Amino acid sequence: MHHPDKNSGLRVRIRQQTHIPLDAELACGSGDLLALVGPSGSGKSTLLRCIAGLYRPAWGSIICSGRIWLDTDRHIDRTPQQRRVGFLFQDFALFPHLSVLDNVSLALRDVAKSERKAAAADLLERVNLDGFEDRLPTTLSGGQQQRAALARALARRPEILLLDEPFSAVDQVTRRKLRLEMMQLVRQVSLPIVLVTHDLDEACMLADSMCVLHGGKTYQQGTPREILERPNSANVARLVDVRNLFEGRVIEQMPERGITRLAWEGYQLEAAYAKEYAGGDRVWWCIPPTGILLHSRLRPSKGEKENAMQGHIIEIVRVGAVTNLIVQVSRTRSKLHMDCPPHVVTRNALQVGEHVGVSLLQRSIHIMPWQS
Question: What's the CA angle centered on 186, arms 182 and 192, to 5 degrees?
Answer without folding.
Answer: 130
